[in-house]
Q: What sequence folds into this?
């Protein structure tokens, strides 16, 4: 009789299974990113916030390219369901923080977490 813990094997998956399928996962992440840009803070489960963080940071990096960059605007159009001004993603210059990366506060993995733009 073997007494061991089952290991979490991903079997080739590189992302978490969120939603009902791949399309549902993209819609879920898109809605989370839109809520983050609209309210500058979201509360969701740890897995959802952790998965969304990389996409939010990539969107901020594209936002730094400016609103005249075609690739940055295509990324914003895909990931955001509302039109957000360029200053929301990267700051307006004077009096704003230069680095708008979010603050991720991990606590217990089963509690709700929040991700906040700074």
A:
């Amino acid at each position: 009789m073997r007494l061991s813990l089952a290991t979490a094997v991903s079997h080739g998956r590189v992302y978490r299974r969120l939603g009902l399928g791949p399309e549902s996962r993209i819609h879920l992440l898109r809605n989370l990113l839109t809520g983050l840009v609209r309210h500058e803070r979201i509360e969701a489960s740890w897995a959802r916030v952790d998965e969304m963080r990389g996409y939010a940071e990539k969107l901020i990096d594209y936002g730094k390219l400016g609103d005249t960059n075609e690739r940055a605007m295509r990324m914003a159009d895909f990931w955001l369901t509302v039109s957000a001004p360029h200053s929301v993603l990267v700051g307006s210059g004077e009096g704003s923080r230069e680095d708008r990366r979010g603050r991720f506060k991990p606590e217990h993995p089963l509690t709700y977490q929040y991700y906040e733009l700074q």
In short: The longest helix spans residues 22-39. The radius of gyration is 17 Å.
